[in-house]
Design goal:
This protein has 660 residues and is mainly alpha-helical. The chain has 25 helices and no strands.
Length: 660
């Protein structure tokens, strides 16, 4: 991970905040940046004249990524988001002209235009906050007078909120944004859009308000991330004002539309809640839910836009920033929007496949792979995301649909854990230690309670819940790997009857009490806890996708799942126990070893997704998810070590048997 040390980060943030207060210095910084861009563009033209297309194109790219990207936020916030986008597009246009070997005169013409605009920026930005109206003519005669007043007020409040956030005045920014939302709703504009067949526009505006609020409330201490959020907030504000600019012309005023009592009542309710949480207002329009719902196709577009931007950065030579952007997209979009949990609630294997695309792109970028390879993965990712959006577009609605989904979640996530617990219980019964069954009962109970508490913490408290959850799951899996491996060795070492009889003579009960009981308890606890927290989060996601939460259907599905898992437990417990001594120990020992092997690979991949480890791809190795095999050095190394350890352990067992 490429982050500043924790001790330095507060100092850097403080210095940057102090620096930002010296507004008089802004013009000098902007001028230096503008001069740098002009020099890079001149260099690109010179290189193009000599026929060096590749370096000319790279010079334009670096002018954008290395310099203009730093100016883009101030231009978007202080002047105009549309103008910023226009300049950004011009960089891409010049790059494409060079790549297609367009006439030199055409390239020079576009470069001259861009340089003139860039050189005008210092003067435009020197006066600070002058966010223009985005070419919005809210005073046009085609807009009803009352909506003119509302639109201008909303526009001004949004601009004030963005400016306050830029100056690290978060409370003031949130107050301005809440006032803008209140003005939009209490004025009746929101309801008017609904009445005249523009409910989708109203939903989008409320959605953008919600996104702005969520971003303003996030407490990012990373300077780069804060700058990125500032850009995103400004862009969301631009989308709101642009939507109003597009939809208000021709929209009848309240005097032209007779209001109905229900709509008036809804407006009063919205007005009372306007200063609270924007998501709630949006949810009320969608059926009374307080959980925000998503248009997954739009989330797909957001993901792919971010991936494409990262690939563009990678092409420009900034591989480190590209890797960070891909990983941030995974957490800030794929996980933060609930996409991962929603898919996981339907199909955990498919969820793992979607996650693997992010990991593979990061690995390819870290290895400096050709862009064509990255684009191939990117295209496959896009197809998979389209399939995911279609899957989530058909949400379960009836009681039976919800119940079946809830049942499958518990069966899928709980089966592995139940098999481990059943093997431990069978071992205790087989060897006449029924008095130690409290190990199983207690560890399962503690695992379930810890799972619910952990899921609640991740859902309600942690702002970086995605990263923390991936790391916790990874550490838990690796701990389970160690415990299960030693348990498997301990069981397999008793395969020979003579060794088992000797072990019995050496007071098995005492040995269990001193050491093995802890191992058995940990193996059972970790098997439950490893899947438990994620299972609870999957149920959160399922409830969020069903009108009214689907509590009855989910409860019924959970009850059915528990019944089936208990049946599996008792079948395992009372059938395996019938095996003769040697096959019993071989079966349970090998089963625990296979589980350790799977957990080793999956545990490392969780740490990769948690940005703790940067993966190194081995393209020749196939991906076998059910066995925990992934084409990365970091996940294969512990599995290879487990194989070597198993060989060494087996040799030791055989030699010990011969000596006996």
């Amino acid at each position: 991970m490429k982050h500043l040390p924790c001790l330095y980060r507060p100092l850097v943030i403080a210095c940057l905040l102090v620096f930002s207060s010296f507004c008089s210095a802004a013009q000098l910084d902007y001028q230096a940046a503008a001069d740098d861009i002009s020099q890079r563009l001149d260099k690109a033209v010179s290189l193009y004249k000599t026929g060096n297309v590749a370096d000319a194109k790279r010079s334009v790219q670096m002018a954008y990524f290395s310099v203009f990207e730093g100016m883009e936020g101030p231009v978007r916030i202080n002047y105009s988001a549309k103008y910023s986008a226009k300049l950004e597009a011009k960089f891409g246009e010049i790059r494409n002209l060079i790549a297609s070997q367009a006439p030199l005169e055409q390239v020079e013409k576009e470069v001259t235009w861009l340089k003139n605009e860039i050189n005008s920026l210092p003067q435009k930005l020197a006066q600070g906050h002058q966010l223009i109206a985005q070419d919005n003519d809210f005073n046009a005669t085609s807009i009803a007078p009352e909506w003119q007043k509302v639109a201008n007020a909303v526009n001004e409040l949004i601009n004030a909120g963005v400016w306050s956030y830029k100056n690290d005045e978060r409370e003031k920014a949130l107050q301005a944004l809440n006032k803008a939302l209140s003005e939009y709703q209490a004025s009746g504009l929101s309801d008017s859009l609904h009445k005249h067949g523009k409910a989708d526009v109203d939903k989008k505006i409320l959605d953008d308000f919600a996104k702005m609020t969520q971003q303003m409330q996030s407490d990012s201490q990373d300077v780069a991330q804060y700058k990125k959020q500032t850009k995103q907030i400004a862009y969301q504000g631009y989308l709101i004002t642009q939507a109003l600019n597009d939809e208000l012309p021709g929209l009848p005023g309240k005097a032209d539309t007779k209001p109905t009592a229900p709509q008036s009542a809804k407006t009063d309710k919205d007005k009372n809640n306007a200063t609270k949480v924007p998501e709630k207002a949006l949810a009320e329009r969608e059926g009374g839910k307080t959980e925000k719902r998503h248009d997954w196709s739009k989330v797909n577009n957001q993901i792919m836009d971010a991936i494409d931007a990262a690939i563009a950065q990678y092409k420009g030579g900034d591989g480190g920033a590209a890797v960070d952007d891909v990983q941030n997209t995974y957490f800030d979009v794929f996980e933060a929007t609930g996409y991962e949990a929603a898919i996981g609630a339907r199909d955990s294997a498919f969820k793992a496949q979607l996650e693997s695309y992010f990991t593979r792109i990061v690995s390819l970028m870290s290895a400096g792979s050709p862009v064509t390879e990255i684009v191939q993965v990117r295209n496959a990712q896009q197809q998979a995301l389209e399939r995911a959006a279609n899957m989530l577009g058909h949400s379960p609605q009836t009681f039976w649909e919800v119940a079946v989904q809830a049942f499958l979640i518990l069966l899928r996530e709980g089966l592995e854990a139940m098999l481990v617990v059943a093997a431990i219980a069978a071992y205790l019964v087989k060897n006449e230690h029924k008095d130690k069954m409290w190990v199983v009962k207690q560890s399962v109970a503690v695992g379930l309670i810890a799972s619910v508490i952990t899921a609640y913490i991740f859902k309600m408290i942690f702002t970086d819940a995605g990263i923390n959850r991936e790391i916790l799951e990874g550490v838990t899996m690796l701990l389970a790997t160690i415990v299960l491996f030693f348990m498997s060795y301990w069981l397999l070492s008793k395969v020979e009857a003579r060794q088992w009889q000797a072990y019995l003579r050496n007071k098995l009960g005492s040995s269990l009490t001193k050491g093995s009981i802890i191992g058995l308890w940990l193996a059972s606890f970790l098997a439950i806890y490893r899947e438990g927290a994620e299972t609870v989060l999957f149920y959160f996601a399922l409830s969020a996708g069903v009108a009214g939460g689907g509590l009855t259907g989910i409860s019924a599905g959970i009850v059915a799942g528990v019944v089936v898992l208990l049946a599996v437990y008792f079948i395992m417990r009372y059938t395996v126990i019938q095996l003769p001594l040697k096959p019993f120990f071989m079966f349970t020992g090998m089963f625990m070893y296979v589980m350790a092997f799977i957990f080793a690979g999956k545990g490392v991949m969780e740490l990769v997704e948690g940005k703790v480890i940067t993966p190194t791809i081995i393209s020749q190795v196939p991906e076998v998810q059910w066995l925990g095999v992934y084409p990365y050095v970091e996940s294969l190394v512990p599995q290879v070590l487990l194989i070597l350890a198993a060989i060494a352990a087996w040799i030791m067992i055989v030699l010990r048997g011969k000596r006996a």
